[in-house]
Task: inverse folding
């Protein structure tokens, strides 16, 4: 049963990492234009180099 | 209509004008260089690249980003105005309109939607992590292990309920303060009571804790809330966009100089100039100029009316041929627009408030849940005298009756149905519109601008000898009159003849000289021929060439695409179709015959239209009104449900529940069918969740519900209801 003291923190940590990723995505407005993002992947405009921000 | 007023619409176009004018004035002050343009035709990856590349290449533009979901582009271009950028986009083939950033700020940021998403994310995280621990407890974790798992679950669940449950607590509190029991009161009670009892049980190292159920409840209910919010937000932002397109300005003549001012600042006695093609901004008397006036949006008449000095004009009419100078007699609240508003308000009051299916269910639901929880508490106290057991059972009753499925039943269906209709070109503005539309048994159509385009087309060029066609085209091109434009369009394949001395005579026609002969195109009485078009369904203009007989050219009002299919489908679905128009009997009868409508009324004024709709309603009919003009607004507000095309006047769009975004009329028939199916789905969903309660509640009252059963029942019913709603999306029955 001692293994629980390692496994439970790990499982909670993974869950928390997922939550933090979700909050980051939401804060950086990645859910504002789902349709546009789905289409943008088809554009070859930034295929050679990343978009300079 | 309560929703509409709350979201910033009113039934009064003149009242809308004042704050809008204020915003226009403010806009110049805080120009931070961000422009928002609407792109109604953008739809694909190429569109995004085209628009962004074209804008980025324009000098002065620092950045441009297309949002395809909202069909908008946000441009960062300090010092530039929309007028600089719209031609750039037109150059690469995209239609663009300026949007007022202030009017849209609430919808672009959409704080409320992000806030709900965040709460969904947090409760989803908590639900899944607690469920991992709960599975261990259910499968037989004992003593210290179980207590540890319960403590960890509690440590996750309590902050989650505190954060994610806020929308329910807030709305429950505001319901209680006004003495009502909404859906949110039992929800909040269940959340608080179950959390409290679980903490107590954990401290006593009891067998059951409901931390998983509590977070799951938050998760499913928040999804319902979010779907509901998104449907409303999309409709609201699109409606705001339609409003943001019309910028009300007038040209004021002050001391001989022209000056552009907001309509709201006009006062009686002001002199205003109205150019050909412009809408008349305020009621007034013509002091100078001759022209023809298109009154279609006010009265439904297709034929232009002659206008000369001394004549009174109403706001909303369109000046066609010559520039006019008007002395304002009434503006803002006193204008004929505002008088019509009073009629609309009276009509709305007469229709009364519609109680939606969900509200009726909630009304019966909340008290019965409370009574059941209280009864089982009292019953167990009486039977065993064990307070802890009785509270535990009362909490279980509250949790299993919690309206997860009920909360999803309506929003899931509404999202699927309105998404489907939006893709076909129909925008739903009002929450209860779908339900009301499903009950409709009579459809009343307006003619001009609704079933027809409200613009003429040449019946046939045949009466014109081929050698006269270039002459007709050249004369027609000299005027902006709708009949001239239609004639020029019809003769676009012919070269324009070389004419000299071309002059437009506002209100009469166009004259010129061709190969030394006088040629004239215009009204019959101006050319001196007998006017016999009063009894014909068409409107006409005449071409006179010296040495030839004058030639009569007939024009008809072209049907909107889909009009025939729409009427046929509605009749097939068993609905009664009625045509009520303000136009001449001959024109209305002709159109009714073309569409196969045998119930039609011509020459009806706005008050008459409203009275006829009210009369139909009094005889038990549920009327769907489809109209676009100011003369329809009162009838639109009075009808059980109403639809207007996007080309309609602002006032008509505000008064109606749904707006057609495309030009095709076919979605109207589709909307009725979809609405009926959606309402059937909502009823099915209620039946599913009530059946589930009928099974689960006796078990809970009997004390046989464990957290495992509660979790299973809750998720099963929610998923069933959502899947049932999703069946609406792809049109299968």
Result:
């Amino acid at each position: 049963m001692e293994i629980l003291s390692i496994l439970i923190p790990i499982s909670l940590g993974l869950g928390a990492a997922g939550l933090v990723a979700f909050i980051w995505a939401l804060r950086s407005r990645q859910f504002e234009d789902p349709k546009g993002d789905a289409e943008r992947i088809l554009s070859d405009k930034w295929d050679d180099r990343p978009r300079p921000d | 209509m309560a929703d509409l007023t709350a979201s910033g619409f009113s039934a009064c176009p003149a009242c809308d004008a004042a704050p809008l004018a204020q915003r226009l004035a403010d806009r110049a002050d805080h120009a931070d260089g961000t422009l928002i343009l609407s792109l109604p035709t953008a739809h694909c990856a190429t569109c995004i690249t085209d628009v962004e590349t074209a804008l980025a290449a324009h000098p002065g533009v620092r950045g441009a980003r297309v949002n395809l979901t909202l069909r908008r582009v946000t441009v960062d271009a300090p010092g530039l105005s929309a007028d600089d950028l719209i031609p750039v986009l037109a150059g690469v083939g995209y239609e663009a309109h300026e949007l007022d950033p202030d009017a849209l700020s609430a919808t672009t940021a959409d704080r409320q939607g992000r806030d709900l998403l965040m709460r969904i994310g947090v409760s989803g995280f908590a639900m899944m992590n607690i469920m991992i621990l709960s599975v261990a407890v259910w499968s037989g974790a004992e003593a210290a292990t179980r207590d540890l798992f319960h403590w960890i679950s509690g440590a996750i669940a309590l902050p989650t309920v505190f954060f994610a449950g806020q929308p329910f607590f807030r709305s429950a509190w505001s319901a209680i303060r006004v003495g009502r029991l909404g859906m949110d009161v039992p929800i909040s009670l269940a959340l608080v009571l179950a959390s409290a009892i679980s903490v107590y049980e954990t401290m006593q190292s009891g067998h059951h804790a409901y931390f998983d159920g509590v977070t799951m409840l938050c998760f499913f209910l928040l999804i319902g809330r979010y779907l509901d919010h998104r449907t409303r937000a999309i409709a609201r932002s699109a409606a705001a966009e339609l409003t943001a397109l019309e910028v009300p300005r007038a040209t004021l003549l002050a001391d001989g100089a022209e000056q552009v001012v907001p309509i709201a600042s006009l006062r009686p006695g002001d002199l205003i100039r109205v150019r050909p093609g412009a809408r008349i901004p305020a009621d007034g008397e013509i002091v100078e100029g001759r022209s023809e006036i298109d009154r279609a949006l006010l009265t439904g008449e297709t034929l232009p009316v002659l206008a000369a000095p001394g004549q009174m004009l109403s706001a909303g009419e369109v000046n066609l041929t010559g520039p006019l100078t008007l002395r304002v007699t009434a503006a803002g609240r006193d204008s004929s627009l505002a008088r019509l508003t009073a009629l609309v308000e009276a009509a709305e009051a007469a229709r009364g408030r519609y109680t939606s299916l969900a509200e009726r269910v909630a009304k019966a639901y909340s008290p019965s849940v409370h009574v059941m929880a209280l009864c089982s508490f009292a019953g167990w106290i009486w039977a065993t005298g064990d307070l802890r057991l009785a509270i535990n059972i009362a909490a279980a009753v509250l949790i299993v009756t919690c309206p997860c499925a009920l909360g999803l039943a309506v929003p899931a269906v509404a999202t699927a149905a309105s998404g489907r209709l939006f893709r076909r070109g129909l925008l739903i503005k009002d929450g209860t519109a779908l339900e009301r539309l499903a009950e409709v048994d009579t459809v009343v159509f307006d003619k001009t601008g609704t079933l027809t385009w409200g613009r003429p087309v040449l019946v046939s060029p045949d009466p014109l000898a081929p050698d006269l066609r270039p002459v007709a085209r050249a004369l027609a091109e000299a005027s902006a009159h709708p009949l001239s434009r239609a004639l020029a369009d019809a003769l676009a394949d012919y070269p324009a003849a070389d004419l000299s001395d071309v002059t437009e005579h506002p209100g009469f026609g166009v004259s010129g000289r061709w190969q030394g002969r006088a040629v004239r195109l215009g009204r019959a009485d101006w050319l001196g021929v007998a006017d016999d078009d009063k009894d014909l369904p068409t409107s006409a203009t005449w071409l006179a060439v010296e040495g030839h007989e004058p030639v009569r050219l007939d024009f008809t009002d072209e049907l909107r695409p889909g009009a025939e299919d729409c009427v046929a489908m509605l009749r097939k679905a068993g609905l009664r179709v009625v045509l009520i128009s303000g136009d001449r009997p001959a024109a209305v009868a002709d159109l009714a015959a073309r569409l196969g409508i045998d119930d039609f009324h011509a020459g009806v004024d706005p008050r008459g239209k409203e009275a006829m709709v009210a009369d139909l309603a009094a005889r038990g009919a549920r009327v769907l009104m489809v109209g676009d003009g100011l003369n329809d607004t009162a009838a639109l507000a009075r009808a059980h449900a109403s639809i207007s095309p996007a080309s309609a006047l602002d006032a008509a769009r505000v008064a109606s529940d749904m707006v057609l975004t495309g030009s095709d009329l076919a979605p109207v028939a589709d909307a009725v069918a979809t609405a009926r199916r959606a309402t059937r789905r909502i009823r099915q969903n209620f039946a599913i969740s009530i059946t589930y309660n009928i099974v689960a509640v006796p078990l809970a009252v009997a004390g046989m519900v464990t957290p495992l059963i509660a979790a299973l029942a809750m998720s099963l019913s929610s998923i069933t209801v959502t899947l049932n709603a999703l069946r609406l999306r792809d049109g299968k029955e």
Summary: Confidence is low (pLDDT under 50) at residues 1-31 of chain B.
